[in-house]
Design brief:
Order of helices and strands: HHEEEEHH
Radius of gyration: 16 Å
Helix content: 25-40%
Number of strands: 4
Structural class: alpha+beta
Number of helices: 4
Strand order of the largest sheet: 1-2-3-4
Low-confidence stretches: none
Mean pLDDT: 88
Largest sheet: 4 strands, antiparallel
Distance between the termini: 21 Å
Strand content: 35-45%
């Protein structure tokens, strides 16, 4: 349902989708293609948080989930963490936009998010 938010534990955005597939397969006998179609239609964005070597937690990647193509769920990175160096034992860096424009920007517009925000997210 639109507007839902959830958490999961995985090592990357792609790993999260793989774990979801595995969980469904453990409980039901459904073709993998159908599972992937359901996942790709239900999830719009995956935000991956991770722990850096200085033990801080940061958003490392934000990906848009696309449709299924050639049997695989398409993932489009929107932002990723770019490390800039260290200062006083802390990692410095920032989320960098990858240049990918949202495929599902219509959902942003329906939610009242300004059109220019949908283009740069």
């Amino acid at each position: 349902h639109d507007g839902a938010l959830s958490t999961g534990h995985a090592n990357s955005p792609q790993d999260m989708l793989n774990r979801l597939e595995t969980l469904v397969l453990m409980g039901m006998d459904i073709p993998l293609e159908a599972i992937r179609q359901q996942i790709s239609s239900a999830i719009d964005i995956v935000v991956h948080l991770g722990r850096l070597r200085d033990r801080s937690r940061r958003i490392l990647e934000i990906c848009e989930v696309g449709g299924v193509e050639q049997g695989n769920i398409r993932m489009f990175p929107l932002f990723w963490f770019e490390e800039k160096g260290e200062r006083d034992g802390r990692i410095e860096g920032e989320l960098v936009h990858t240049g990918h424009r949202l495929i599902r920007s219509d959902k942003c517009k329906k939610a009242g998010i300004q059109e220019f925000m949908c283009g740069i997210m």
